Amino acid sequence: MSTSPSQNDGGSSGANSTGATLKIAFPQARVKTIMKEDKDVGTVSHDAVFAVAYATELFLELMAQKSYDFTRQEQRKTVTYKDVATAVSKCDELEFLSGIFNATVWFYGSPCIRPA
Length: 116
Fold this sequence. Notes:
The protein is an alpha+beta fold. The protein has four helices and four strands. The protein has helices at residues 28-36, 46-73, 81-90, 98-102, and strands spanning 12-15, 21-24, 104-107, 110-113. Helix 1 packs across helix 2 and helix 2 packs across helix 3 (81-90). The chain starts with 11 loop residues before the first strand and ends with a strand.
């Protein structure tokens, strides 16, 4: 999902440096709840919650686009696990996820996490 100051789709909003309002897809209350699950986190400011929600949205947009690029290269319309794993292994921006995707093994068409 691309965000721009003109979007008005019911998501949470926050002001950017130019004073325009950005809409984000993730509910800020849920993001704040997830952030506070960390025992080391005490109080979380509204700005921090907005920044994490917006960064998460941008990250997922990048990952989805890179995965879809590999889907299109194979002339398919459905993004599969293989496309996501290929995006992770071939894109420098997603390299930090390589350990997670290497730990997944396929059994009978579904992923199972290998025991540590």
